[in-house]
Predict the 3D structure of the following.
Amino acid sequence: MDRKVFALYTYMRVLLTALTAAVLLMSCDSNTKYSDKTESFTFVQMCDTQLGFSDYEKDKASFRQAVRQINELNPDFVVICGDLVHTANDKSFSDFKEIISSFQMPCYYVPGNHDIGNKPTPESLQYYRKMLGEYYFVFEHKGTTFICVNTQLWKEPVQDESEKQDRWLKERLKIASGKGQQIFIVGHYPLFCREADEPEEYMNLPLEKRRELLRLFDQYNVVAVLNGHTHTLILNRYKNIQMVNAETTSKNFDKRPLGFRMWYATEEGLPRHDFVPLDRPDP
Ligand SMILES: [Zn+2]
């Protein structure tokens, strides 16, 4: 082999090795690399604004304070994980709507048991829809999908309604996954509080439904499930899924300060979150 041919041969081998390494690196990264349209952004998770749970006027004042601080922090949007009010009626729902109208960014919210009843009925669902809008929906933001669910339809199934939401959920997961998007789930009831197979109680979802949902969320690489309801900070992980029950602005049972969580979603890798306490303690 003359020198020129040998140099060409060496060059080709180096190129081939580099190409192989690049392909390997790309395949190793495939679990966390999303669609090229995915961008970094921030959003806020609020839980259990529950106007009237501790003291109606105090809960309203704390909620307003949170809105002021969130406007200053200027995230892309806010999600509220249910129990928007303590007792659902025209006044509480109108006050809730009036307070969120001060947000300078979109605010998305889902119902909790206090908004549609521990055992929701077609009437309570219709009343919520009339006053506050859809109780499950999806939105996309910068290449990420947020699936906002009505967990009450899993806790206490309502004929036809629960099946309809389940069909919709599977469809939305499939669509988001097909687009290579990262997926967040926003709801009220946590799937579990301590362990994935713990028995059902007031604070979690029925075991059979929970197993079905965990399988589904894992299958579609959901990155995080955001919930409220427990009034305590609970951070769990199920496989690659972060499960976060955050602080409320009404009352916390674990002596955590009132506040909310700021989330940082990134183009690749796992999203993270920080607690932001309310600046002014309740009077
Ligand atoms: Zn609740």
Notes: The chain has a mean pLDDT of 90. The first strand starts at residue 41 and ends at 46. Residues 3-28 form the longest helix (26 residues). The helical segments are 3-28, 56-73, 90-100, 113-116, 122-132, 152-155, 161-178, 207-219.
